[in-house]
Automatic annotation (TrEMBL):
Protein name listed in UniProt: Trigger factor
Lyase recorded as keyword: no
Broad class of enzyme this protein falls into: isomerase
Molecular function GO terms recorded: peptidyl-prolyl cis-trans isomerase activity; protein folding chaperone; ribosome binding
Record remark: domains: Consists of 3 domains; the N-terminus binds the ribosome, the middle domain has PPIase activity, while the C-terminus has intrinsic chaperone activity on its own.
Record-linked Pfam families: FKBP_C (PF00254), Trigger_C (PF05698), Trigger_N (PF05697)
Location of this chain's protein in the cell: Cytoplasm
Superkingdom of the organism of origin: Bacteria
Occurrences of domain PPIase FKBP-type (ranges): 162-210
NCBIfam families to which the protein is assigned, alphabetical: tig (TIGR00115)
EC id: 5.2.1.8
Catalytic activity: [protein]-peptidylproline (omega=180) = [protein]-peptidylproline (omega=0)
Length: 472
């Protein structure tokens, strides 16, 4: 087989492939076997029909067509690998030129990952904010803790911000009930948001027994539909928080005194700030890496297709379109740069790392990890996940090699940061800590061979879906 690449633009190529007839012999024999298993010929058992009879009954051209249809996908992949091209979408393959004794010739146009130079990535210098834990941080955390142990008491007054109300809702459009737009006995905290736009404003000042109708725009199933919503307040309740004293400390924690509880909460806040600082360092290293890369060619055909697909259901305005496209372009650029670092440093993904990643994603989605793993295998998305994990490792390596300081000029010791935000003794841990995951968790579907195969696939073939709202 020989192949020639014509570069149409930095992210689009035309691949011309030519294969000698003799190299297709195995495909021709395979075609005979498949046809023999499908046809019924008197005097022959199914699957035992000889090639000569098939040629007579079906025709040799039909056999050759079957052979070509089987051969082209593998030949295309071999040609892509031979020319070190990574596809980002499905190819457009023309009708092949082929006949008895002739070489097989076909061309394929495909969107590919651009060839870029890896920017300078070692020793990047970034600055992050100082860590400060003030009284406001402590007060917010104490308020959250107090709210967990608070009680609700019915009050005979108008509802105000922060109050809990029990309400009934009824949405109508031109006097007709909106499907799914009715609810009764709903408990809602005024000011919390997230239910119906305009509800907080309507509830302020209402008393138990009051009803009010307001105009709003729905989201979800009836996204964009303007309706009238009648809200009826059944009860107004005030949240009563426990006093901040030693008794509360004993109720809400393992500590005996409020001072001990305050000290522990302050330490928790400090740990959270350290993790936030590490994430800020990661983001700034990535920003610097992207800046060093300069202009990176992007696949305009792919971007246009994904934007149109995202907006196909009619939701979103011009501002939403622009925001989605900007994020998509940024994500693609990140991926291309980190992929180059993965290749340059020969970064690989282990079974444990892949399992840990899937467990984390499953926890966020609140589904069983094994179920998620099976979905990834069934839907063919495993290579995209492997690529994502590899990019994360590449970015972590860049952060590890970076010089990170805070606003005061102090070195930020990310190599001592544990997953919970505490600091280890020097030399105890290496690198930025990963989220806690039980590494002993096993996936029956994801054995080492599956991981290796997925890693190979992710290196050889792109996934046009992986760039849609995925972060490196």
């Amino acid at each position: 087989m020989k192949s020639v690449v014509e570069t149409l633009n930095p992210t689009r190529v035309r691949l011309a492939v030519e294969v000698p007839f003799a190299e297709l012999e195995s495909n021709i024999q395979s075609a005979y076997k498949r046809i023999a298993a499908q046809v019924t010929v008197p005097g022959f058992r199914k699957g035992k029909v000889p090639p000569m009879v098939i040629d007579q009954r079906i025709g040799r051209p039909a056999v050759l067509e079957e052979a070509v249809n089987e051969a082209i996908p593998q030949l295309y992949q071999d040609a892509m690998r031979e020319n070190e091209l990574t596809p980002l979408a499905q190819p457009e393959i023309d009708s092949p030129s082929f006949g008895e004794g002739e070489d097989l010739k076909f061309t394929a146009e495909v969107t590919v990952k651009p060839k870029i130079e890896l920017p300078e990535w070692e020793g990047l210098e970034v600055q992050v904010d100082d860590i400060e834990v003030g009284d406001d941080d402590l007060g917010e955390r104490l308020d959250v803790l107090r709210a967990r142990f608070g009680t609700l008491a019915t009050v005979e007054r108008a509802a105000a911000d922060g109050d809990f109300v029990q309400i009934d809702l009824n949405a109508t459009n031109d006097g007709e009930p909106v499907e799914g737009g009715q609810a009764s006995g709903v408990s809602y905290q005024i000011g919390r948001g997230g239910m119906v736009e305009g509800l907080d404003e309507a509830l302020a000042g209402m008393n138990a027994g009051d009803s009010k109708t307001f105009r709003t725009t729905l989201v979800g199933t009836h996204d964009g539909e303007e309706v009238d919503v009648e809200v009826t307040v059944n009860a107004v309740k005030e949240q009563q928080l426990p006093e901040l004293d030693d008794e509360f400390a004993q109720l809400a924690s393992e500590f005996d005194t409020l001072d001990e509880l305050r000290a522990d909460i302050r330490e928790q806040a400090l740990n959270s700030k350290r993790i936030e600082q590490a994430m800020a360092a990661r983001d700034k290293v990535l920003e610097q890496l992207i800046a060093n890369a300069g202009d990176v060619p992007l696949p305009e055909e792919l971007i246009t297709a994904q934007v149109e697909d995202h907006l196909a259901d009619g939701h979103g305005d011009d501002d939403h379109r622009a925001e989605f496209e900007e994020n998509l372009r940024g994500n693609l650029k990140q991926q291309f740069i980190l992929d180059e670092l993965v290749k340059a440093e020969n970064i690989e993904v282990s079974q444990d790392e892949l399992s840990s990643y899937i467990i984390q994603q499953a926890m966020r989605s609140r589904i069983d990890p094994n179920q998620l793993a099976q979905q990834l295998v069934d839907q063919g998305n495993l290579p995209a996940v492997v690529a994502d994990v590899a990019r994360g490792k590449a970015l972590a390596l860049a952060v590890e090699k970076a010089k990170v300081t805070d606003a005061s000029g102090n070195a930020v010791e990310l190599d001592r940061l544990r997953e919970d935000g505490t600091l280890a003794e020097p030399g105890e841990v290496e690198g930025v800590a990963a989220p806690a995951v039980d590494g002993s968790f096993e996936f029956a579907e994801l054995d080492d061979d599956s991981v290796a195969e997925a890693a190979d696939e992710s290196a050889e073939a792109g996934d046009s879906d992986e760039s849609d709202e995925k972060k490196a």
